[in-house]
Amino acid sequence: MTRVAMTVNGKAVTGEVEGRTLLSSFLREDLHLTGTHVGCDTSQCGACVVHVNGQAVKACTMFAAEAEGADVTTIEGMANADGSLGTIQQAFQDFHGLQCGFCTPGMVMSAAALLKENPTPTEAEVRAYLEGNICRCTGYHNIVKAILAASGQSVPAVAAE
Amino acid sequence: MHNFEFVKPSSVADAVSALAGEGAQALGGGQTLLPTMKQRLAAPEKLVSLSGLAEMTGVSSAGGVMTIGGATTHASVAADAGAYPGLAGLAAHIGDPAVRNRGTIGGSLANNDPSACYPAAALGSGATIVTNTREIAADDFFQGLFSTALDEGEIITAVKFPIPQASNYQKFVQPASRFALVGVFVARYADGVRVAVTGASEEGVHRWSAAEAALSANFSAAALDGLSVAADGMIADLHGTAAYRAHLVKVMTGRAVAAAS
Lengths: 161, 261
Ligand SMILES: Cc1cc2nc3c(=O)[nH]c(=O)nc-3n(C[C@H](O)[C@H](O)[C@H](O)COP(=O)(O)OP(=O)(O)OC[C@H]3O[C@@H](n4cnc5c(N)ncnc54)[C@H](O)[C@@H]3O)c2cc1C
Ligand code: FES
Ligand code: FES
Prior knowledge:
The complex is a heterodimer. By secondary structure, chain A is an alpha+beta fold. Chain A has helices spanning about 25-30, 85-95, 105-115, 125-130, 140-150, and strands at about 1-10, 10-15, 50, 55-60, 70-75. Chain A folds into 2 domains: about 1-75, Ubiquitin-like (UB roll), CATH 3.10.20.30; about 85-150, DNA polymerase, domain 1 (Orthogonal Bundle). Chain A has 5 helices and 5 strands, in the order E-E-H-E-E-E-H-H-H-H. Chain A has a 5-stranded mixed beta sheet with strand order 2-1-5-3-4, with helices on both faces. In chain A, strand 3 and strand 4 form a beta hairpin. By secondary structure, chain B is of the alpha+beta class. Chain B is built from 10 helices and 12 strands. Classes of the chains: A alpha+beta, B alpha+beta. Chains A and B meet through strand 4 and helix 3 of A and helix 2 and helix 5 of B. The structure holds flavin-adenine dinucleotide and FE2/S2 (inorganic) cluster (2 copies). One FE2/S2 (inorganic) cluster binds next to loops of chain A.
């Protein structure tokens, strides 16, 4: 076992992990932050996306030991300080950007990474950025609308409604 | 996944000695190795993490050559390789943003997946693969599917790319994996054009020498008109027949020439 220390959602945390412990397992099973979802475990669905040192990564495809000393943000860190939904989360609710909600944590974390890099993306840029986030329910249009709205842009009539 | 010892060295020298033992393997961004280990197709006893080794990270250019550290992520190459637009553009379209934030050039070249993008850039640029012990020309480095000239425990510390006058990578995306169904990298140098093809051949990444000769004489898509690519030895699977891939090689080469800048 290896001792790891990192900051998760602004709080210093430590834990004992095996070499093979995935960051997703450490977050969910050791820290009980079960908002980070594991949809595929084959690095393809993006439900497990978190930020490590500000960058979107798939938590199922990174060892917890690799996050030693890192600053990690999960979906639990996206709410406002008073517990109300953050801007992107609220936009997902307002624009019906989720149905079952399984993909939503990863969608929100990818959206947050996109808006940090590119505060006013085009619709095409939003779609391209979500390449690694799969949703089985929504057909994506409302997710794209929610992200455009969260960026403060007026939401165009998205095609194929 | 089988358990293993995780080691995080702070220098290339320490990484090399940690890799010396039986059962040790390098860990780059883990974007290929982790899925492989989950399937138990790989079960190293010790993983030596190369991420965070400053000596192996970053992009720099001098004297017409771009040098990229072996542990540099795809996202960093996309952002920092502006002096070589064909290469930056290739890196910007590998996988998805989260994969690009972890995956590294060294890991991609060492893995030599027959559908991966970077092998086409390295071969198409006549790059030099720099390891902890030697320098290997790209023409000698790739040795068929998932096989390279690297010895056991040898690590890619950097890759040196001669910067071409014009270049472009065209990737016909396999719709499920988003890897290249066929990808073609074209680079035009003062002394001739290089064309490297990935995704197509059962032998892995390779040069298309007939196209290189035609394009060296006349750098335009029309120069390819008289050429054809044989279906023999092309990959055939549910995503495309061998003849389809052979056809795509020519189409994507033409598009790369037309788009080269
Ligand atoms: C969803 C998804 C989509 C992807 N799409 C694409 C795509 O479109 N195009 C594409 O080209 N790739 C794609 N990839 C693969 C991705 O680019 C990987 O990052 C890359 O192939 C491996 O790099 P890595 O740093 O993650 O290596 P790892 O997975 O850490 O290692 C791979 C192999 O290389 C060895 N290794 C790692 N670093 C070094 C080094 N410096 N020196 C020597 N050996 C080393 C390891 O021991 C291992 O054998 C995709 C991956 C995923 C998960
Ligand atoms: S659970 Fe990580 S990508 Fe699907
Ligand atoms: S809302 Fe159900 S998977 Fe996206």
